[in-house]
Every structure is written in C-alpha cells, then in structure tokens.
Write the structure tokens for this entry.
Amino acid sequence: MNARVRLPVHTDQHAPSYYAATVNRRIECPPLAGEEKADVCIIGGGFSGLNTAIELAERGLSVILVEAHKIGWGASGRNGGQLIRGVGHGVEQFEPVIGKDGVFQLKLMGLEAVEIVRQRVAKYAIDCDLTWGYCDLANKASDVEGFREDYEELKGLGYQHELRMVPKEEMRSIVGADCYVGGMVDMGSGHLHPLNLALGEAAAAQSLGVRLFEDSPVIGIEYGPEVRVRTAKGSVRAKTLVIGCNAYQNGLNNYLDGKVLPAGSYVIATEPLAPERARELLPQNMAVCDQRVALDYYRLSADNRLLFGGACHYSGRDPQDIAAYMRPKMLKVFPHLADVRVDFEWGGMIGIGANRLPQIGRLPDQPNVYFAQAYSGHGVNATHLAGKLLAEAIAGQHSNGFELFAKVPHITFPGGKMLRSPLLALGMAWYRFKEALSG
C-alpha cells in the first residue's frame, strides 16, 4: 500500500483529509488582537457559527466570529458530506412537551433545513460539488417497513421531491453490492464537499461585513448585560453571545459541556477510480447510508473516489490506524476493491445529545447567551436551520421554531468527562447486541 495521509491528533491547520486537499478557495482571517465590539459575538467557525453570522448580517446586525483554529476545522469541514432531510430521531417522543403540532413543526423544519442549504449555495454561488440523490439502505426486512412508514409520512408532510421504494431485486441500480434487502430513494437529499461549503459561507459572511478571526481560542467569558469574550491577544464586547462549539466545547461552558457527548466518526477516501468502476459502485452517484447502530455511509467524490465513513466511537479513543479500522468495513460491502489504494484517512468528533434532538436555545441564567449543538450526525442540514432560528430570536423576530427547540429539556450526561463516554459506549454495545439478535 502507498503511504496515506493521516490525521494528527491536534493541529491548528485543517485535518489533512480529502477535503483539505481539494479546497477551492482560501480566506484571510487574522487572529483577534485588541479590543473589538459588535452587536453579536459568535464563538465557533463551523456551520453553526457561520450560518448564524450570515443570517444576522442579512438582518443588519454587526457580527464578530472567533474560531480557535481554522474556519471549518471541526466536524463541519471533516464530515461525510451527506445532506439528508430531518432533524432528530423519533421526534414523537417530545409530544408531551411541545404537543402534536410542535412535533409536526419539527418534522417540517427537518425538510426546511435542507432547503436552506440549497438556497444558500445558490444565492452565494458556492462551489461545493452539491449533488442531489440519496438512498436509505435496508439491512433487514423491518428496515423496509420503516421506510414505507417514512414514505407515507413524507408524502403527508407535502414533501416536494421524488421519493421511491427500491425492492431488493433492483438494489444493484443503486449500490453495486448484494448486502441490502431494499431501500428508499430521496431526490431531495444528497451530498457535497463540506469544507468548500464552509469556506464559501465564510466568504459570504465576509461580504456581508462579518468580521472573522481564526487562531483565536477563547480563554474566558465575562457574562452580563454586555458580554466580554477574551482571547490571548484580544477581546470582543457584545450585547449578545452565541456559542457554537458543539463537540469541541473543551470546558468553555460547563452547562453546555455536560449536555453534549463528543463521539468519534471516521472516513477513508480511495484513490480516484476509473469512471466505469466508480459507477459500478454507485450507478446513480447517490449518497447512501445503512440502518445499523454502527452505520456505514458512503458516496463518490467529484473526482470518483469512494468516500466511506462510519464506525461512530463513543469511547473517546480514536483508532490508532483509521484506514486499517475502516478498510475491512468497506471491503465487506465491496470485496472487489481489495486492490484499491486508500489515499486519505481522517476522523473527528461529532456532538451527540442524549435524546438525539439538536440543542438550540439560550442559557437559563444568561438570557443574552444563545447556543446550538448536539446534531447527532445530521449536522450539515441542522446547523443551517439552527443559524436561521438563532438569528430570528436574536433579531427580535417571532421564531416559533426557536421556541419549540428551546422548550425541549436536555439531560446532563452523568459521570462527568471521565465516565460519560464509557457509560454511553456500554449502552451502544447493548444496542448493537440487540441488533445482532434481531438479525
């Protein structure tokens, strides 16, 4: 095997992923130095922070965003690049808190979230390889029944995009493998280059007057009617603060830190494949995802690499060799790729909440401090929705969506940092055991 590009444990540069190797723009963002002032200060230069900044600037507010590393350094610039409808898992569980209509509105917002991405890419002419087409893959018959329920529900919500059930005998028109018993195609979801999307949104924010500062870790926050955010070389005073650090809280705020579990997710990218070989794998160039607890998700890149991801880790420990860990999973689906080189391997942390609903709200004791985090694997679309809802609330516009999300309580993971990851890892192992028993 040829040498692979591997992800260092800590870096102030982007993880040397396929995405970092194929960025199509650079943006200039100096470190914060000296005293600055704005209507709103945002901590975090991922999709949450960038889209909140764009939405606020479009509403006429002055915004400063500070990022500890580089724009898109975290999950926003490293994820699988899948843009899939929906927010949360099993949102019916929240009916006692927000009512039937609230659940209905959450489901509609799960569709709106993808449309926000579609519109933002179009409005600001962002080149991010946006491609439409996605398929849920069934591992067993009960998955197919679940898809049928999803199909009927989406139709009932007035979903405007093509949906179709794919029987087992037609699955090779979607995936060149024999391990799935059916699927559901959704042409309103798709895939993209997430780092190029983040950088394009950063450029859009700058064009609206947002001031972006990189390499500026926050070392302290002074709360009050006016918030002061301090870095090593500067500070920002603002009427309102937004914290959008997700899995990379690093103790910034204890309340938020305890409600999100950082979980590792990993991706490999093969060498570029001949076009005909790439189309044997995914004949319609769709993004796909299976239904297992330790799920597989994969797609083709614009230059015909297979990007294969999954293996969500709750232990807090990354595999020593990501490619050695992920390659057997890829070969289980596509054994005929044994001769294919892996050119890139990388990982990063996604934020998981206990109830799997994005956490969007404000601090209970600080009404001018807002937050968004814990997207549980649906971050590409849900972050864009969060930005819109936060901006509506901050700008004083009535936001029924913000109020719905803010009503849902979120538990603090027990055991603190030392115990919460092992406890959840044990729980997920139990779910995998039950999944294996169910066949």
